[in-house]
Structures are given as C-alpha cells and as structure tokens.
C-alpha cells in the first residue's frame, strides 16, 4: 500500500486541477502519513529479519549490550510510532472535514485551501509532543546507565503505550461518531430537497 499512497499523493500534488480541490488536502496528508508508517514498518521488518539471521547464523545468543537510546531512537521506530498516530488523527480530521462539508456547507465553502493545509500541518505536529517526551525519558534512562540487548526489544516508556492505546481508541471513536453525524446531516439535507 505504501507505493500506492505515494503515487496517490504525487498524482494530486502534480495536477493543478486536483490541487485546487479542498477535499483532497486531507487525502494527500493521509497518504503521506501512511507512507511514513509503511516505511517505518518495512524498516522494522527488515531489521527483525537481519537480527534473527544474525542469531541463527552465528549461533551466538549473547549479543552486545547497548543503551536504550541506541535502540529506541531509530528511524524505523520513529517512523512507525509517528506515522501511526498521524494516520489516526488524519482520519479523524477527514471525518470532521466531511461533516463540515455536509452539515455546514455554506461555512465550508468559505474555508480556503490554505486554512485546510494549516489544519493538516497541525495534525502532523501534535503527535510530536508526546513522542518527544517519551524520547526524552528513554534518553534519561540511557544517561543513567541502563542497558538492553542489541536485539533492541526496548520500546517507549510504559506510560506512552497506555497513552497511545487510549489516544488511538478515543480518536477512532470520535472519527466514527463524526461520520455518523455526516450520515445524519446528509439525510436531513436530502429531506429538505
């Protein structure tokens, strides 16, 4: 799916007619977020294959110890975690945008593309706050001398897992509720016609 999302984003960005359509701003942003998540997942899979081959080929089950920071703060981890959260938020932003377009179409017509792009940038920025704090905590644990196996089984701090699960679930429910509002607004508008 990652190449298809990249192709979708490039198609919309390269065609001037498509770039002018407001509803496609969030579609491009979602495609880009999915590309980030897909790339992180691909890199994580490649790393796991490499690590398991290292253990299988050498017969060595004792890998060198490294700091949690060396394991956690990698491109694959950051892309996976960040891409997942941005994708969830972007789906909710799309739900809200569709609700506005259907329920409050006159107000939606006055919203410019630049404002929607600013909203998309805000969606991409928000997950950086908890991710930065979790990264800071892993860094502090590394400075204090904690070590982990080089297979890098370490993840974010425990609170971040709880936050992420709560966040994902809550934002997902909000997205579904918003789409329920889209359906109700559509039925109401259809009765008026």
UniProtKB/TrEMBL annotation:
Transmembrane domains' residue ranges: 24-43, 81-104, 116-136, 166-186
Entry annotated with the keyword Membrane: yes
Domain of life, source organism: Eukaryota
Swiss-Prot/TrEMBL keywords: Membrane, Transmembrane, Transmembrane helix
InterPro entries on file: 7TM_GPCR_Srsx_nematod, GPCR_Rhodpsn, GPCR_Rhodpsn_7TM
The G-protein coupled receptors family 1 profile domain, residue ranges: 4-193
Family matches, as Gene3D superfamilies: Rhodopsin 7-helix transmembrane proteins
Single GO molecular function: G protein-coupled receptor activity
Cellular localization per UniProt: Membrane
GO cellular component: membrane
Pfam families: 7tm_1
Name of the protein in question: G-protein coupled receptors family 1 profile domain-containing protein
């Amino acid at each position: 799916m990652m190449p298809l999302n990249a192709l979708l984003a490039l198609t919309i960005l390269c065609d001037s007619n498509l770039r002018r359509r407001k509803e496609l701003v969030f579609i491009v942003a979602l495609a880009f977020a999915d590309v980030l998540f897909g790339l992180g997942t691909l890199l994580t899979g490649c790393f796991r294959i490499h690590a398991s081959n290292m253990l299988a080929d050498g017969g060595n089950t004792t890998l060198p110890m490294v700091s949690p920071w060396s394991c956690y703060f990698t491109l694959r981890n950051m892309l996976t975690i960040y891409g997942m959260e941005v994708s969830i938020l972007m789906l909710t932003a799309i739900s809200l945008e569709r609700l506005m377009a259907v329920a409050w179409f006159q107000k939606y017509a006055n919203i410019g593309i630049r404002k929607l792009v600013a909203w998309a940038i805000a969606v991409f920025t928000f997950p950086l706050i908890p991710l930065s704090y979790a990264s800071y905590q892993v860094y502090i644990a590394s400075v204090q001398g904690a070590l982990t196996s080089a297979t890098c089984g370490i993840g974010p701090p425990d609170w971040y897992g709880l936050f992420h699960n709560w966040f994902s679930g809550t934002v997902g429910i909000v997205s579904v509720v918003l789409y329920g509002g889209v359906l109700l607004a559509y039925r109401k508008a259809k009765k008026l016609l």
